[in-house]
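The protein record passed on below.

***
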Amino acid sequence: MADVRVEGPAVERAEEILTPEALAFVADLQTRFGAHRDALLAARATRRAEIATAGTIEFRPETAAVREGAWQVPPPPPGLVDRRVEITGPTEPKMAINALNCGANVWLADLEDANTPHWRNVVGGQLVLHDAVRRTLSFTAPEGREYRLREDGELPTIVPRPRGWHLPERHLLVDGEPTVGALVDAGLYLFHNAREQLERGSGPYLYLPKMEGHLEARLWALVFDHAEQVLDLPAGSIRATMLIETIPAAFEMEEMLHELGTHAAALNAGRWDYLFSVIKVFRDAGPEFVLPDRGAVTMTAPMMRAYTEQLVAVCHRRGAMAIGGMAAAIPSRRDAEANERALTKVREDKTREAGDGFDGSWVAHPDLVGTCREVFDAVLGDRPNQLDRQRPDVHVTSEQLLDVAGVPGDRTMAGLRGNVEVALRYLAAWLAGNGAVGIHGLMEDAATAEISRSQVWQWVHAGVELDTGDTVTEELVRRVVAEEVAAIGDLENLDDARRLFEQVALADDFPDFLTLPAYELID
């Protein structure tokens, strides 16, 4: 029997989550699948080296039979038939209650990018999920205001997002070694809530982030099959939505659905992590892979249109739902003009998605639920989704998916400064334990920091010339960092955030994830 040790700081009510039985279940997952996960991470490096050598990615010839075969994923399960509005947010009590009360169809309970892996958040998030599933979640703010779940009407379907395969959990050791963060998050949730969810007419559903291909989806399928057997759940009752947010995964959408098999429910299209992956994978590929200001890379850019149209076409061909990207705007209740600008942008974005065939989309704030619903209602009418809408007109090529050079936009000093400032503000909040941060009217998470620091790294190594005539060098970036730190002023953890940003943005070799060195700085 494995030796299991918890080495994190004390967390209130932790004994309700970290029971001997739950820890034994997680330890079993770690023992069975930890080495498999390690091998897949090593395979990522090999795959990137192959892509770097070739200078491109192609659809895998060895999986052509999967792409050409006639197969379908199972129909959507209870609670995931209508997903027109999904609200995302961290598993923090107040925000969780607001999300569950806002009228969305699904709550993406984020244990990943909108969270931080402070032990209090890892355990506390599981407590919030436990209480939310049982409809007992409540919160009293320091000033005395009470937050409770509404008693009228249905609440959104709860779909947690565990951490990606790459992140460890050093506060929970199995045989003296850190566990896989994804197995901790998914394992604890399934152990405590899978049966309860089924008895309540829903099910144990998950979002799966940051995968790079079908072999990583296969590992999740193995984990789910084993969990169903151990927890005595009906076969195929664990269903998952996979985020297609890496460029290698964009070339394996069908294979990923096929490997997840009876557990597959949907695919989701993001933006910042996808662009971050483009930079990471093609960091040595030359000037044709250097992006303009990240704000200029909209979902209407040719390469992004190819990516989203491919996703919808693949999903509907295989009976899976296609879920659109994030509306990150934070509506203003004080500035009517700013609020209308934000809502107009969200409405345009969601109108494009609904028109393209997406079955639903994400919002980051309760005040955006109505706008998103209005748009999808206009397209869906009485239908719960658009699964019947096929896209035989879509024939996406590798060249279209990789058309970085075709993205319109400039490389500007304002873009450089924006990347530096937003990353600094976000990292300071992250180090304090807050993974969802409002910055300049947008709700930002770790993906924003990743694309921001990655773009700075890319511009330095490509010697990009900005609109001001300046060449982006390490010296220029350090000067901009110093100026932005001075402009931000007094902010908790700003010095640590500065050092971390410079570490990941100015390294000689590209750090795969900024959250890995950041994790070493927290408890």
Summary: The chain has a mean pLDDT of 97. Residues 7 and 141 are 29 Å apart (CA to CA).
